[in-house]
Amino acid sequence: xxxxxxxxxxxxxxxxxxxxxxxxxxxxxxxxxxxxxxxxxxxxxxxxxxxxxxxxxxxxxxxxxxxxxxxxxxxxxxxxxxxxxxxxxxxxxxxxxxxxxxxxxxxxxxxxxxxxxxxxxxxxxxxxxxxxxxxxxxxxxxxxxxxxxxxxxxxxxxxxxxxxxxxxxxxxxxxxxxxxxxxxxxxxxxxxxxxxxxxxxxxxxxxxxxxxxxxxxxxxxxxxxxxxxxxxxxxxxxxxxxxxxxxxxxxxxxxxxxxxxxxxxxxxxxxxxxxxxxxxxxxxxxxxxxxxxxxxxxxxxxxxxxxxxxxxxxxxxxxxxxxxxxxxxxxxxxxxxxxxxxxxxxxxxxxx
Length: 352
Fold this sequence. Notes:
It contains twelve helices and nine strands. It is α/β, with parallel strands linked by helices and about 350 residues long. The protein folds into two domains: about 55-145 and about 280-345, Bordetella uptake gene, domain 1 (D-Maltodextrin-Binding Protein, domain 2, 3-Layer(aba) Sandwich); about 150-275, D-Maltodextrin-Binding Protein, domain 2 (3-Layer(aba) Sandwich).
């Protein structure tokens, strides 16, 4: 309409028409530049705006467990670092897979974080055919801390150390009564480690899966099962002190200050080098923008350097991780993936 009006007005001179045309072209170029600039700004906005609203920390277990305790030690100081509230959401089920899927279905903008460990992100997908995500769908922003593991046995098992356990297990297997080892479910970290221990000592044992750690401990105290490879804390140390269960060895390379009387597996012949720990970390979707991941990494590193946070995590038997570069966090995660996939292959674990 404008072009037609210019051309059809007999009162306009050629000079006026030329000036008007130039004005229109300049206007078009200016508007086009504004559109391009707007698009570029919109593309960069998520990274620069982080965090521009509350952040949710997804915990894949019900409230009250160790994972929940860890999250509640982190959320307030992390809120101060990010300048936004950090809200904890507990969503249990399917070995952590339900929470993991919710994170994967959310926008990759860093406002939904996933606190998880190797059981939820590495071993569960190896054992459960219904889980469709891969470990690599997540990116580790920063490790929170590691938990030591121990070999717990029923109090009346007639062995004093790991080598005697291996010999007694072989004797029981020959008699047709293999020892039992418990886990918190098929494909759980403790299932893999129990099966790996059986394979390492070359003796068949029977796996007994449970739905959680509490009933395992109850049956271990009651003498129903023989062995449980498990994280341990103050309650377990107290049960050991009062003779309800026995701790044969820790899976750390050396003895631990918390239980100095308990040997490391490296002091045995049967399980020398059988060194494992479980851990907790904060993850995001793998395609989260790099500036957002860097901002989160910095905030979590500062949070873990807080003396009050470190003290509270120590009290929960989860010593806080030292601050590490972002690349080192991802390297550690990849090494864990390869380690546990290797164990799964070795024991012949098949998705069910």
